[in-house]
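Complex 298.
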Amino acid sequence: MITGRTFVLGIIGWPVEHSVSPAMHNAALTALGLDGVYVPFYVAPPDLEAALKGLWALGVRGANVTVPHKEAVIPFLSRLSPEAKAIGAVNTLVREDGGWTGYNTDGVGFVRSLEEELGLAVGGRRALLLGAGGAARAVAFALAGAGAGVITLANRSRERAEVLARDLARQAQAEVHVLPLEPEALAGALAESDLLINCLPVGMYPRVEEMPPVPVEKLSSNLVVCDLIYNPRSTRLLQAAQARGCRTLDGLPMLVAQGAVAFELWTGKSAPRETMRLAAEQALGRAGGGGFHGSPGR
Ligand code: NAP
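Predicted structure with NAP bound:
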């Protein structure tokens, strides 16, 4: 029940109606008996600054930030966490000391999901990332921060991958390479990688028949294949990887883990992850479309 003491959390996005975060966070608030509520806020780009001031004036305690505002919010914040600064994008706002602090929990969410779902520590590992957009930047910095040995970036726009490679090289010890997003180049890199991580939206609902240009016959069974897409959970890439005997990880554990880190920043409480996972799965099921194709790929 909403009372005069209920604190408010939310998500700003455009669109925002398909987000599963309200279901996930409201389930977590209820499970812990916290007097809080998490609401979706539809914010069109020209209204972003006014929306942030409004959320502040209304006493909102924290918010997630999604497409297309993850980079655009930065000029309106008082502080950035070191991760958000390096990545250049924010997915979580926390009300702190007179202004919003911007965090990015996507990368740490990915690394945690690898550890928790597959028992895989990234120290010394060689990772091949498809993409150089916001999610790829978050994952690349988190891998580098967790001690990955080699990070190879393959992106459609080579220039964007080179910018990320330069940013990584300034801050991290990892060896960084850039490749074209083409089967021949990927074939060579796959032979020298422990992890393949798809950070492209290719294969996402509704275009579930699409797949990144990965030469499937080069996927060896000692490779771990991850897809950040969570709708559908079993993308064509993950299905092909499973057929080749690879261990796989879909995007839902990362979604839950990034949400859990945000929840902990807002509430100071340990997030009820299993509750959040169930709520996210149910919300995705209700959203229909991609839903679930086959196993979660663990
Ligand atoms: P983004 O910033 O828009 O970046 C998109 C990336 O995909 C860029 O590298 C872009 O290449 C590339 N790309 C787009 N369409 C392509 C195509 N048809 N062929 C080849 N490359 C293409 O998006 P994002 O925020 O990084 O999100 C990427 C994916 O990660 C989405 O599926 C999103 O749902 C997922 N994600 C999942 C989680 C999670 O918690 N599981 C969190 C964040 C994001 P160019 O640079 O050449 O344009």
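Residues 7 and 191 are 51 Å apart (CA to CA).
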